[in-house]
Prior knowledge:
alpha/beta; 39% strand; flat; 3-stranded parallel β-sheet; 72 residues
Amino acid sequence: MSAELEGVRVLILTSNTGVEHDELMVPREQLRARGALVTHAAPEKDGVHTFRHDLEPAEIVRPDAALDDASR
């Protein structure tokens, strides 16, 4: 793990459905690997339904927080 983003806080906002898998997962993991504290929030704490190529269902990702619970 690199520490180049140590102490940087990042909030990723998505909907609960229709999220392109790699547009969420790749940046989230790369930011975390560089030391950023990443929080993923969605309108509901329920799973976020991701897709590949806009049509193929992929994994369901649980956000870290609901939008109403995300804070500074």
